[in-house]
Amino acid sequence: MTTSTAPGQVWTLTLRRQKARTGDGLPAESYTDAFEIICCDCGDDPRRDYHDVPTRLQRLRGPYLIDTGIKQYESHISWHEAEARAR
Ligand SMILES: [Zn+2]
After folding, report:
1. Residue 26: its pLDDT value, please?
2. Which of 39, 55, 57, 59 has the most CB within a 10 Å radius?
3. What distance in Å separates the CA atoms of residue 6 and residue 10, rounded to the nearest whole number?
4. CA of 23 to the centre of ligand 1 (A)
5. What's the CA-to-centroid distance between 42 and ligand 1, angstroms?
6. Of 66, 9, 19, 24, nearest to 47 (Cα)?
7. Where in the sequence is the domain holding 42, given as residue range(s)?
């Protein structure tokens, strides 16, 4: 039996450039050189601000430099795949 479109096999994981902030801590229209990982499978929501998500999600978000971000992104996908196989 094959279920190629089984839910949970597609990871909703995003590596995005972190928004710059103004002096007031408000999001600016520019972006920094830092990247963050948003994983909806871990309960994160791209619309929420860094400071509004739980600590474990802040740790996942980083921020990272681009090379580290890509490595973290890939290792997080591997972690989800391992978790799925363990079920
Ligand atoms: Zn995740």
Report:
1. 67
2. 39
3. 8
4. 31
5. 4
6. 19
7. 2-86
Tokens representing 79 are 């972690």
Quote the tokens at residue 10: 């597609």
CB-based neighbours (< 5 A) of ligand 1, an ion = 39, 41-42
Provide the number of structural domains found in the chain. 1
CB of 37 closer than 8 Å to CB of 69: yes
Cα 24 to middle of ligand 1, angstroms: 31
Nearest to 80 by CA among 18, 29, 8: 8
Model confidence pLDDT, tens digit, residues 26-48: 667 788 889 999 999 999 998 99
Q: Average pLDDT of each block of 10 consecutive residues along the chain (87 residues)?
A: 49 86 71 92 91 95 96 95 91
